[in-house]
Amino acid sequence: METAQSQQQAAPGAFTAFARFVLCGGGVGLASSFAVAALASWIPWALANALITVVSTLLATELHARFTFGARGRATRRQHAQSAGSAAAAYAVTCLAMFVLQQLVAAPGAVLEQVVYLSASALAGVARFAVLRLVVFARGRSQATTTALPVQTTVARASAPAGPAELCRAA
Questions:
Q1: Phi, psi for 8 (deg, rounded to 5)
Q2: How many angstroms separate the CA atoms of 115 and 4, rounded?
Q3: Confidence (pTM)
Q4: CA separation for the pair 25, 133 (Å, rounded)
Q5: Looking at per-residue confidence, does 3 or 21 come out higher?
Q6: Contact by Cβ (8 Å): 148, 3
Q7: Cα separations (Å) of 147 from 30, 113, 140?
Q8: What end-to-end distance do the CA atoms of the chain give, in Å?
């Protein structure tokens, strides 16, 4: 029971977790955007984005497990796999945003590309926060909460209806 309570206390609230998510995920995302831009000068942009997404997802999942959501340890394989699913969706969003940009602007500059990429990443990041908090790292929190807060029940006895003899005595 003591372990469950300490796990419950270790899990940060939504505001704190989001602030940590922005700090960790945003920092990794910002560094990733520059890495994608640099790598895209040597290889196709979609491949550069895919490679950087894999590396940044592994790094960010570890940071989120240890710091953002208070899991106190390394991320499990299950958490990495689930996080990878949300990262794949984020990858699709950033690719779609860049594809649309290429269709709308013949030769976008590096600044415009960064603005579009970071905007798409921010949108995907908010969705990822919800998935990570509610699905990927929620399991330990919900078990700790149910373990730490036992349910108490009260059983009420139904009394038998008063018969004629009891009614006469009461009168």
A1: -65, -40
A2: 44
A3: 0.60
A4: 13
A5: 21
A6: no
A7: 39, 49, 10
A8: 55
